[in-house]
Design brief:
With 476 residues, the chain is α+β, with helices and mostly antiparallel strands. The strands form 2 sheets. It has an 8-stranded antiparallel beta barrel with strand order 2-3-4-5-6-7-8-9. The protein has a 4-stranded mixed beta sheet with strand order 10-13-11-12. Helices cover 13% and strands 31% of the residues. It is built from 6 helices and 13 strands. The protein is elongated and about 135 Å long. 37% of the residues are buried. The chain has 4 domains: 230 residues, Beta Barrel (Porin); 50 residues, no CATH class; 29 residues, no CATH class; 114 residues, 2-Layer Sandwich (60s Ribosomal Protein L30, Chain: A), CATH 3.30.1330.60. The termini are far apart. The N terminus is likely disordered.
Length: 476
């Protein structure tokens, strides 16, 4: 039977969630006892006795209620229930009347969770009137137990302060009616609930509890969200809020109700939104929330670090002077021939303006270039493509010019594989130039494997230098 006590306590704590301000109803259940006549600290249901009472509840908000209880019942116990105590032959019966005031805390109010059911805890204080009647001389044979004389002559208060506490669930049948159950424990700070102390265990105080069903009726102003503000005065009747905001919530606590707050989850003074830089543009709409700027620039300042007339937020090169046509970036002259890359048909090969940035047949008649590759790769990157484009422009403009393409590989791998890889690298360059319009007779390519390394040591830096294609341009 003791194993049934805890499940009964948990199951028996169902009462109703209030959508009205007041609730009143009846309690029907039973009292149980733990003390000198029970061997287990959890008590027993063998001596449970009926109890009945009244409740009055005032809902204070979505999470809290104040409740007054008044109930009468009986406690009893008998050594005959337990074989270990049968020789002692003590028993008792106590009439009790309890008046208590409880504070209920709903963990998840049904009016907010959208459910009829919600759990709650309760605790409080009260007044207990008890009338113990102990049977101390029921022994068939032998002398009475030790302590019987002291208990028979004991004088103790029959009115006690009691401390009720427990756990519960609440359930709404409809807007007016609540059906449920309730359970909890009480201590009255006395060892004489049963009228027995010295004959039992004077080191332990007695406890009692109540578990029972309840039926309550609700009345008063309707309050759908349970925030303590009647729907007739609540501007947000389905959302729990504060009286200072006419019943509407203020989630971020900035003094502005959520319905009027542009940022209901961020506290701020600018229509409820924060403005960290104080520029009059709220942080969510400010593209530069830490730097003040005008609204027409989305809150960003008009900075121009390089003074080229292009604002930094539009300047792709904010530390270099450049025209607006290049988004603030300077004109590039990769080959330093005085002709900007965008007008230079040979941007990586120095040339003359009369030949559109490509070299003319004057001065040096032979120029060498190198392309470097990744391990086991013959793929050309964008920069290498630009160089080959420049060479193609020169070869097309000068039909007498020629290009020798020499492929090389590093010392990693077999000699046969390296020979094939170097030839493949040279052929890739050759085919690229063919696609750009260079005549086959102007070019010759070959692969030399690992035979002619630029750096003979075995370091990674040396390997990178040896993974190359050499381009020898003959202008005459």
């Amino acid at each position: 039977m003791n194993r049934l006590l805890l499940p009964l306590l948990i199951f028996s704590t169902i009462t109703l969630s209030g959508q009205r301000q007041w609730e009143g109803g009846i309690l029907l259940g039973g009292n149980f006892y733990q003390g000198d006549l029970t061997p287990s600290i959890t008590g027993t249901l063998q001596g449970a006795r009926p109890a009945y009472g009244l409740l009055l509840r005032r809902n204070l908000g979505p999470h809290f209620s104040l409740r007054a209880n008044a109930f009468r019942g009986k406690l009893s116990g008998d050594d005959a229930y337990f074989s270990d105590y049968s020789g002692r032959a003590l028993s008792f019966s106590t009439d009790i009347t309890e008046l208590s005031l409880l504070l209920e805390w709903r963990i998840s109010p049904s009016v907010l969770a959208g459910s009829r059911l919600s759990p709650y805890f309760f605790a409080g204080g009260g007044f207990l009137k008890m009338a113990p009647r102990a049977n101390l001389l029921n022994q068939q044979t032998g002398p009475p137990p030790a302590g019987v004389k002291e208990d028979a002559q004991a004088v103790y208060a029959k009115s006690r302060f009691t401390l009720p506490f427990g756990f519960g669930l609440e359930y709404s049948l409809n807007e007016q009616w609540a059906l449920g159950a309730e359970g909890g424990l009480r201590t009255a700070f006395t060892d004489y609930l049963d009228g027995i102390s010295f004959a039992g265990n004077p080191q332990k105080k007695d406890w009692y509890g109540f578990a029972g069903l309840s039926l309550a009726y609700r009345w008063g102003a309707r309050d759908q969200d349970g925030d303590g503000i009647a729907d007739s005065k609540d501007h947000c009747p389905t959302q729990a809020g504060k009286a200072s905001h006419s019943g509407c919530p203020d989630s971020d606590g900035d003094g502005l109700a959520d319905r009027d707050d542009d940022c209901p989850l961020l506290a701020g003074a600018l229509k409820g939104c924060p403005d960290s830089d104080g520029d009059g543009v709220s942080d969510p709409a400010d593209q530069c929330p830490e730097l003040p700027g005008p609204p027409f620039r989305a809150g960003c300042p008009s900075l121009d670090s390089d003074g080229d007339g292009v604002p930094d937020e539009e300047d792709r090169c904010p530390q270099q002077i450049g025209p607006a046509s290049r988004q603030g970036c300077p004109l590039l002259d990769s080959d330093q021939d005085g002709i900007a890359d965008e007008r230079d048909q040979c941007p990586l090969i120095p040339g003359s303006s009369t030949n559109y940035g490509c070299p003319e047949v004057v001065g040096e008649t032979e120029t060498n270039y190198r392309l470097f590759f990744e391990t086991n790769s013959a793929r050309l990157n964008n920069q290498q493509g630009l160089l080959l484009n420049s060479l193609a422009a020169v070869l097309i403009r000068l039909p007498s010019a020629s290009l020798l393409i020499k492929g090389h590989a590093d010392e990693q791998g077999t000699a046969t594989d390296n020979q094939e890889l170097s030839l493949h690298r040279a052929r890739i360059c050759y085919e690229y130039l063919l696609q750009r319009g260079v005549l086959p007779r102007q070019m010759h390519y070959d692969g030399y494997g690992e035979v002619y390394p630029l750096a003979p040591d075995d370091s990674e830096a040396a390997h990178r230098l040896n993974r190359r294609v050499e381009l020898e341009l003959q202008l005459q």
